[in-house]
Amino acid sequence: MNTGSIGNARVKVMAILGQADIELRFLSDLGPGTIVELGRMTSEPLDLVVGGQLIARGEAVVIDGCFGLRVTELLEAPK
After folding, report:
1. 30-49: per-residue pLDDT in tens?
2. Which long-range contacts (CB under 8 A, 24 or more apart) does 52-58 make?
């Protein structure tokens, strides 16, 4: 059995900066310059989510003008 091919599988990875609960009617008011508060302090780590599952936390970094995430904490897999 060839088990090496699973390492080539691609998954969507998301770094989540924060979240907000807003009223549906507010969405029609969104436009350039609108600020949506995300409910997370700048000192709090970002969430790293893979396949809908939170797997790690970290801090935002900039690499060659692009955002990245430096992992600071790996979370235990759910049992």
Report:
1. 999 999 999 899 899 999 99
2. 53/78, 58/15
pLDDT at 6: 82
Find the Cα–Cα–Cα–Cα dihedral 43, 49, 38, 36, rounded to 10°.
Answer: 140
Task: Tell me the pTM.
Answer: 0.73
What span, in angstroms and rounded, lies between the C-alpha atoms of 26 and 18? 18
> Using CA atoms, how far apart are residues 36 and 15, in angstroms rounded to an integer?
18
* 52, 45 Cβ separation under 8 angstroms: no
Q: List the structure tokens of 52.
A: 């809908």
In single-letter form, the type of residue at position 68 comes to G
CA distance 21 to 37: 9
